[in-house]
Amino acid sequence: MESTSPDTSKILLSESKYEKLRLNSPLKIPKDSIRTSLRASTIDVIFATIFTITKSGILLGNFLVELGASPIAFGMLSSIPMLVNLIQPLGAYFSERTTSRFRYSLLINGASRSLWLLLAVAIFIASWGFIDSHQLVNVTLVIVLVTYLLEGLGAASWLSWMAIIVPRRLRGRYFGVRNSVASLTNLICVPLAGVAVSTWQGGGLQAYGVVMVVGVLFGYISLGCQYFKFDINPQLHNWVPEHGNSFASEQENTSTPTNTQSSFFNIGILKNANYLKFLLYFSLWMFSVNLSMPFFNFYMLNTLTLDVSWVTYYGSIQAATNLLLFLVWGRLADKFGNRLILVLVGILVAIKPLLWLGVGSHNLDLWLWLPLLHVLTGGTVAATDLCNNNLQLGVVPIRDQANYFATTAALAGISGALGTTIGGLIIQNNNFGGLPGLFVLSCFSMLLALIPLLFVDEPHRQSLFELIQGFWQNRKVLT
């Protein structure tokens, strides 16, 4: 081993400190604590999903429609969640300087969810005539912006927390179950909330204020569930002891003691070739998917001139498929790996925009082809969401995870927003072929995005080229 420099010797751990770190290693969580944490996280997602339903999606969109919001307001509502991902590196920087993942989550998410109570108060003030609808729209957009910014500060820390708690061998199955629970909650609660808003005697605006208060209460219960999850101290987690590799990544060994205390941007990210290959793939994929995905509903409503009830019906089919297949994809991911599934399913996703070009408004299309397209969408979205998340957990080193997760989210947010913007410009310009041209472009763009994925190494899995080579050799033996 090379001699230790004076600067390095300053960060060497004493025996007592090393023993403390070893005992508190996030990789040595007691089995009972893991079980309790996973149960708590599964219950947490139920209440968190109910809260999310009340502050986004169809309920918030309907609220703005009743206020007479402009198309610009709806555009801002769509772009804010993607663009605020740029703040995630700052959130990672702050979170790595705390001593508790739970306390940091409680502070950030507690403040974020409490702000929605201000919107409920503003709604009741508006119902008494003290502010007009235009002012209420502005208040809503400000609250949306601030709360998403706060959530961006906490997202990387939460994902890093889950990456330590969930054992690698169970990630596919566990996140499959967790996502299925969230989808089921969404499938049940969205119609119930819609009925509550539409039948409230005081009117839709007042009803949304009541629903918002109830949603925030469920959001607080969600934070309470996190108390039962095994807490992680980032200060201990980011140290690498002198002996062994307890804190090293799943795919690396470290013999030299280093202090990986997070900076605003960790230069080590630029030296991690495998992660950079994943980052290139994921950024290109988010750009390509968002070229066409947001405009499928527009295609049905505008080009096919379908009634909105048909679109809602197809959305329910997609949600139900998504719910059922999360469990299947989770088990397949644990067995065959996430990368292989992403490549195979990614080809289906790339072909899907071309399938839309042959759809019309005939009975056969309405009752057969459109439902099948939404089944395909629900199944492939379940696979890509689950496997992209799990693959990222695998390629990111355990040390300084939050910085890696934040970088991924920031670039994915920029790429997704850029894809949506360019897609909208292409639709408006007939020189590029309008919607049909956009769907063809999206297909080729997604196929190109899969190329970097072929070179990403997934820990504990053979590369795709090794799998092909093994298949070819076995084929020769059989013949």
Polypeptide structure, described:
The chain has 479 residues and is mainly alpha-helical. The chain has 2 domains: 32-232, MFS general substrate transporter like domains (Growth Hormone, Chain: A), CATH 1.20.1250.20; 271-468, MFS general substrate transporter like domains (Growth Hormone, Chain: A, Up-down Bundle), CATH 1.20.1250.20. It is 74% helix and 1% strand. The protein is built from 19 helices and 2 strands. α3 (31-55) runs antiparallel to α10. Mean pLDDT is 79; it is low at 1-26 and 240-264.
Tags for this model:
479 residues, mainly alpha, Growth Hormone, Chain: A, 2 domains, two-stranded antiparallel ribbon, disordered N terminus
Query: Could you give the count of β-strands?
Result: 2
Name of the CATH class of the largest domain = Mainly Alpha
Radius of gyration: 24 Å
- Uncertain segments are 1-26, 240-264
CATH architecture of the largest domain: Up-down Bundle
Largest sheet: 2 strands, antiparallel
**Which descriptor suits the 3D outline?**
globular
Strand order of the largest sheet: 1-2
Q: What is the count of structural domains? A: 2
Structural class: mainly alpha
- Strand proportion, as a percent range, falls in under 5%
Helix content: over 70%
Query: Looking at this structure, what is the CATH superfamily of the largest domain?
Result: MFS general substrate transporter like domains
Cα(first) to Cα(last) distance is: 51 Å
In round numbers, the mean pLDDT is 79
SSE arrangement, N to C: HHHHHHHHHHHEEHHHHHHHH
Question: If you consult CATH, what is the topology of the largest domain?
Answer: Growth Hormone, Chain: A
Count of helix runs: 19
